[in-house]
Design a protein that fits this description.
Length: 399
Amino acid sequence: MNRRRAGRRISHSQRRGAPSGGQWRQINKDQWQDEGTPQVREVVGEAQRPGQHGREAVPRGTCQTMCPARELRNREAQNRLHRLEMLPGTDRDRRPRGDPLRAVKEYSRPAAGKDSTNPAELRPPAVLLKTVCYLIDEITASSHQHPWTEVYSFVFDRLRSVKQDMIIQRVSGSDCVAILERTVRFLIYASYRLCGEPLRLYDPRINDTHLQEYLSWLLGCYATGSEPHPNQEEFQALALLYNLGSVRATQHILELPERLRSAPAITLALSINQAFLERNPVRLLRLAGRLNFLQTCALHRHLAACRRDLLLIYSHGFSSRNCCFPLERLSQLLSLDTLLTAQLCQTYGVEVNQDKQVVFSKAAFSEPEQGKLHCKLYHSIVSEKQKDLTVQSIIHGCA
């Protein structure tokens, strides 16, 4: 008697084509330029029900607060309020109350049987933009919120919920661009400010994955929108600086209209990218001195490799017992002070003698052990540009 083989049960994530294991955390520097926007990643299946077509299938939010009333009540009952959302004076209570003026809708993964298209729980574009501005002005830029890793975790999650509402409603136009621009600035700034923090507090790969998706979405809006975008030059340059060496990023810039491609910020980014591709760290670091603060934040993740290349090239080019290179001159090339330059040389096995002369040797050059090189110590080229800029002005683009 032949038995029918039971079909293998396929999970919801497998039906969606979700990557298995830890693949979702892999860095792909070309991801932002992939065709389409990241909307397919977190879009909820109910956004277009079977049998519905066109604009009628797209839900329109009616929630006028940053957090829907039902969610606020549920999180109060389940004691799941963040301390930044609690009503002042109730934070020490057994069950704190939520402040309707401070609570923000949290990100929740799509689940079977859950209707994520309820208009009463979706915020319209104007409210979403207001929410993002609140997260920047009252949370991110506040001098009273410590530590900043907690601030980042809260804002990062709430920005994901904003993106989720945008995807479900297929938000486009000026509000969409304004939200994406602020989000990209926040994530670029966070990649610099939280560099070197423990993984349990800040994961640079997760930050990078989301930043690439937001960049892809934003650049897609620039390409398809008919209205003018005054900040396009800024973000085209930021995308290239963040993705130095990426073939797709370079190709994207070269395919821009001549008027935009010849803009000062993009021309400078192209020159830095060319120096990176040619492995010319001296020229790259010299050009980096002309970048503004946020542009240098986008570049900073490439600086460690750039300085390493410079020391390696000089270790071969000036490899001689009788040849000494002035430490002060090397510090100028590396955009570091002499103390940090000597420390960096020591990390790579390059000798600095008592006369403050660098003795290069190709045999002595060695790669540091994992975790021995602390990138955060060598951020002076970025921190010096911040000066009196506030976090609020940086993320709003007023710097």
